């Protein structure tokens, strides 16, 4: 086993989820809640990976179709899908995924580098790969899930 | 935050309040109100700032404040006349003081030459008395002693002996001021070991004893190698109220001082003096009280009479002159409350919806109760919104200084009149109107008003007038800036617009349309971009920031007489009255304030112009048609107008269009939710809201949609939706 | 026993600073915003020492001291005035009104505490 990072910073808890047959995980500290699918209000001329916005207890939450972000075809959302609400910097975003699969405790030492042949998009937010019980779970860096957009000064 | 840093913040907050008090007080004085309360309040404002500044070591500020304070002190004591010229100087001094405060707070720099100049003029005004005593000092040796000659004997010439002999005889007055011999002796004891003897010989019979009198003489032998100042310092507070003799003595062989000889023996001069003093003291005891009463009476006019203490305590308030009980509340808490109430409104709507869907009969008890709930919720919302409502006064208060500065810079004479400062508006709106208003006033003085010579030549008074008014009108707040200048020079405006390609040379425009050309981007008729209105800050920027607030700005001009800018703003940025429409299955909200009328277009009204532009003939003219579904990209092919419903809307600057939608669902008041909080601005969309079914509905940006008619596509930059609306995440 | 100090000053900044210095020195502090308020507070509190500013609205330092001295309950309470004014007239006036002593602004916390200690029984 190759150690990618020396002096791992210890264990961290991750939530793993599934999109199609692929599995990914994010730091549990960034996850605010997990909820079932609600129909989103479409935003005019939005990028393909934005399904729309939903009402989360009074706040307007954008929903990111994670499959589209990976370059996969759009999800056909149904009641079986799941929205993982995460905090990215000061914003809250919902990730539309097929299902939550696991909660893991992993050490940084276990993270393998993302192979270079991966697409730019994937490399931009996949921090690394982790072997777990024979499965491969990709670790997501949330900061880049939404591509940097120009924001008006708030 | 470390406590000192917190207090420093408090200090600067307080300074702002004091500066506001100062300015308004000085202006009242300039207008002739020179009653003592106003003058004192003005003095106290500067005094307060000086005091705090000293504590934080802000030397420049202290220095200037001191000179300023001296001048004000002379006025309040009647030694300086508050003549108009003096008042003008004081107002400039107040401006300088404000600059110094802000420089101290923000670490910036100040125009030192200007401030030094004002300081010089202040010194001249006060006859240089401000120059003295710049530093506070602890030395009050200037206070007269109850003169008792210190017996300096030859012992002074000997090498310094570590010891003092102190003879101390307090007067009744000393006790009257709550000083106590015991405490003084205790203090002396801190310098070194003491031996104290008391001579009670002046003590009268019990019958003649005044419990508040003073009859005892104390003799203290102090063994301490300290200076005379140190000993004297112990008696610092009571020097006037006692007899005090401090002598050196020798350490060895120094006899314990004998109690002063009885009167029966040979009395020394000192003792006779002491006797006489004592007698005088008991007689004099009422005098100090009388003295105290005299200054009190003399100043009764100046200060509040002590009877004030007996009055029923006025309501404790933060406002300096008891305007009514108020409390300070963290803005965060108010915002949170407003968010919660917004949620309440949404939830109530959702509840109504469910009940409706459940098919309960209209008259059922549940429905009735629900109606009441809706009433109540609306009232709560109104009350809560009112919490954040503030009078525009705080904005108007900044204008006098601005007017002074711009007038000075342009060399014009300007008088500012204000009206309606009590008009209330949501706090969020208040903060955003400061900049547009500032520009409008600068503009009015710089471009609107003619030069003094031109005015006189035109038979106008040399002094130009700028009038600032605020009022409520049809559910909005209207602010007007009116000047009595020359009005818009329509020829020049038109020429400039043609030159910049904004209109075609043969365009026919009404006077009003010509006037409103100044709001177009890149427009400026100033031959040089004057420092005042700033480079590139034209009226178009003003208009955009007003629009971003959901407001409108327009101008009316009368050549030779002046111009009036009218600014119209929503009362609050948190709630909106909207028309609910459906477009291609999507629910959208169109702000009611933008809708002129609804109509059902007839096929024969609709005409094609070119390839894909359609207009509708109505109201004696032709108005562009916009298919909202197509404009927003919901559907590629526009719907047929005759099968749809249309809204005649009016955007900024009076631009009109007819929006085609699928259907109208009704009208309702919606709580505005920000898209930018968690996402970003969306072209064509102003904000979002949550409907009764819990789903998000988008609020249309009418101006953006309307501008589609002026260019081919909905460009993102054409709909500059600044995040202005209440974020409620 | 912890001593109680009543501070009377119309400046929030001053009040905060006085409180900070005095609490650090182990005193219990009650505060008032001006002379009238100070008299109200005295209805409920029995301070060991009073520290008051001179320039205040409604009832200034002089008036306050005089009012306090007139009342038998507080006649013997030591009162210190805070003053930036070096004018001997003002000092004399404060003394005539019944001030026990004075502290010069900007005050050195050490001197403040020292002055209080000197006049507090």
Characterization of this structure:
- Chain A: Pfam families: CheW (PF01584).
- Chain A: It comes from Acidiphilium cryptum (strain JF-5).
- The complex is a heterotrimer of chains A (154), B (729) and C (121).
- With 154 residues, chain A is mainly beta.
- Chain A has a single domain, classed as CheA-289, Domain 4 (OB fold (Dihydrolipoamide Acetyltransferase, E2P)).
- Chain A has two helices and ten strands, in the order βββββαβββαββ.
- A five-stranded mixed sheet of chain A has the order 8-1-2-10-9.
- Chain A starts with 10 loop residues before the first strand and ends in a 14-residue tail after the last strand.
- The N terminus and C terminus of chain A are likely disordered.
- With 729 residues, chain B is an alpha+beta fold.
- In chain B, a hairpin with a 5-residue loop joins β18 and β19.
- The radius of gyration of chain B is 39 Å and the shape is elongated.
- The C terminus of chain B is likely disordered.
- With 121 residues, chain C is an alpha/beta fold.
- Chain C has one domain: 3-Layer(aba) Sandwich (Rossmann fold).
- Chain C is 45% helix and 20% strand.
- A five-stranded parallel sheet of chain C has the order 2-1-3-4-5, with helices on both faces.
- In chain C, β1, α1 and β2 form a beta-alpha-beta unit.
- The interface between B and C is large, with 57 and 54 residues.
């Amino acid at each position: 086993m190759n150690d990618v990072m020396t002096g791992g910073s210890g264990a961290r808890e991750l939530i793993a989820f599934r999109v199609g047959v692929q599995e990914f995980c994010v730091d549990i500290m960034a996850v605010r809640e997990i909820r079932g699918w609600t129909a989103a209000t479409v935003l005019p001329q939005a990028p393909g990976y934005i399904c729309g916005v939903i009402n989360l207890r009074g706040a307007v939450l954008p929903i990111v179709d994670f499959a589209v972000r990976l370059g996969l075809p759009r999800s056909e959302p149904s009641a079986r899908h799941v929205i993982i609400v995460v905090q990215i910097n000061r914003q809250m975003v919902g990730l539309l995924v097929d299902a939550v699969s696991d909660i893991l405790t992993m050490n940084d030492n276990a993270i393998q580098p993302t192979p270079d042949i991966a697409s730019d998009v994937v490399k931009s937010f996949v921090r690394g790969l982790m072997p777990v019980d024979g499965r491969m779970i990709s670790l997501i860096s949330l900061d880049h899930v939404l591509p940097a957009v120009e924001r008006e000064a708030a | 935050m470390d406590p000192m840093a917190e207090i420093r913040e408090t200090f600067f907050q307080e300074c702002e309040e004091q500066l506001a008090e100062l300015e308004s007080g000085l202006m009242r004085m300039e207008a002739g109100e020179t009653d003592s309360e106003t003058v004192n309040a003005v003095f106290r404002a500067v005094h307060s700032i000086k005091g705090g500044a000293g504590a934080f070591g802000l030397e420049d500020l202290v220095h200037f404040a001191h000179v300023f304070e001296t001048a004000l002190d002379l006025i309040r004591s009647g030694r300086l006349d508050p003549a108009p010229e003096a008042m003008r100087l004081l107002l400039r001094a107040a401006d300088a003081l404000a600059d110094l405060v802000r420089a101290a707070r923000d670490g910036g720099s100040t125009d030192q030459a200007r401030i030094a100049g004002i300081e010089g003029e202040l010194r001249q005004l006060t006859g240089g008395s401000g120059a003295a005593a710049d530093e506070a000092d602890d030395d009050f040796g200037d206070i007269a002693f109850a003169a008792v000659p210190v017996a300096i004997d030859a012992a002074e010439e000997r090498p310094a002996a570590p010891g003092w002999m102190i003879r101390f005889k307090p007067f009744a007055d000393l006790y009257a001021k709550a000083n106590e011999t015991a405490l003084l002796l205790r203090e002396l004891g801190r310098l070194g070991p003491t031996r104290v003897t008391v001579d009670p010989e002046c003590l009268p019979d019990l019958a003649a004893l005044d419990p508040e009198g003073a009859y005892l003489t104390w003799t203290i032998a102090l063994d301490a190698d300290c200076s005379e100042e140190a000993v004297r310092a112990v008696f610092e507070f009571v020097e006037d109220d006692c007899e005090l003799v401090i002598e050196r003595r020798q350490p060895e062989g120094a006899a314990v001082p004998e109690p002063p000889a009885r009167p029966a023996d040979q009395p020394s001069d000192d003792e006779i003096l002491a006797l006489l003093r004592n007698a005088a003291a008991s007689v004099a005891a009422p005098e100090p009280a009388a003295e105290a009463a005299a200054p009190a009476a003399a100043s009764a006019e100046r200060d509040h009479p002590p009877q004030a203490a007996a009055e029923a305590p006025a309501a404790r308030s933060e406002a300096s002159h008891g305007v009514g009980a108020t409390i300070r509340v963290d803005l965060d808490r108010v915002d949170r409350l407003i968010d919660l109430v917004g949620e309440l409104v949404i939830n109530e709507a959702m509840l109504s919806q469910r009940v409706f869907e459940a098919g309960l009969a209209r008259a059922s008890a549940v429905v009735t109760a629900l109606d009441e709930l809706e009433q109540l919720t609306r009232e709560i919302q109104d009350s809560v919104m009112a919490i954040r409502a503030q009078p525009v006064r705080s904005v108007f208060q900044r204008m006098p200084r601005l007017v002074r500065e711009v007038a000075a810079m342009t060399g014009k004479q300007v008088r500012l009149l204000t009206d309606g400062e009590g008009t209330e508006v949501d706090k969020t709106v208040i903060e955003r109107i400061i900049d547009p208003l500032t520009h409008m006033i600068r503009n009015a003085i710089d471009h609107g008003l003619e030069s003094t010579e031109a005015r006189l030549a035109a038979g106008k008074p040399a002094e130009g007038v700028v009038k600032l008014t605020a009022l409520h009108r049809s559910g909005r707040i209207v602010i007007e800036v009116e000047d009595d200048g020359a009005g818009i020079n329509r020829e020049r405006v038109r020429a400039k617009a043609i030159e910049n390609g904004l209109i075609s040379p043969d365009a026919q425009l009404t006077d009003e349309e010509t006037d409103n050309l100044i709001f177009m981007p890149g427009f400026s008729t100033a031959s040089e971009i004057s420092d005042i209105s700033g480079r590139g800050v034209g009226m178009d920027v003003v208009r955009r920031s007003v629009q971003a607030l959901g407001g409108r700005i327009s101008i009316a001009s009368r050549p030779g007489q002046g111009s009036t800018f009218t600014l119209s703003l929503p009362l609050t940025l948190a709630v909106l009255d909207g028309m609910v429409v459906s477009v291609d299955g999507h629910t959208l909200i169109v702000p009611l304030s933008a809708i002129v009328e609804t109509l059902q277009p007839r096929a024969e009204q609709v005409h094609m112009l070119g390839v894909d532009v359609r207009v509708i003939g109505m109201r004696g003219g032709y108005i562009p048609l916009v298919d909202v579904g197509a404009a927003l990209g919901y559907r590629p092919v526009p719907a047929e107008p005759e099968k749809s419903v249309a809204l005649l809307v009016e955007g900024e600057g009076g631009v009109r269009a007819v929006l085609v939608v699928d259907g109208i669902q009704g009208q309702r008041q919606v709580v505005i939710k920000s898209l930018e909080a968690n996402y970003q601005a969306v072209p064509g969309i102003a904000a979002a809201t949550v409907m009764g079914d819990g789903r998000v509905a988008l609020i249309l940006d009418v101006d953006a949609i309307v501008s589609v008619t002026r260019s081919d596509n909905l460009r993102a930059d054409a709909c500059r939706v600044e995040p202005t609306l209440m974020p409620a995440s | 026993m912890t001593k109680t100090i009543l501070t009377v000053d119309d400046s929030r900044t001053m009040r905060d600073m006085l409180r900070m210095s005095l609490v650090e020195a182990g005193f219990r502090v009650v505060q008032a915003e001006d002379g009238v308020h100070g008299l109200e507070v005295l209805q409920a509190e029995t301070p060991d020492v009073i520290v008051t500013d001179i320039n205040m609205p409604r009832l200034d330092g002089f008036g306050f001291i005089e009012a306090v001295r007139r009342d038998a309950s507080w006649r013997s309470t030591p009162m210190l005035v805070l003053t930036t004014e070096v004018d001997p007239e003002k000092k004399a006036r404060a003394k005539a009104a019944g001030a026990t002593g004075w502290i010069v602004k900007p005050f050195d916390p050490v001197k403040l505490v020292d002055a209080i200690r000197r006049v507090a029984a």
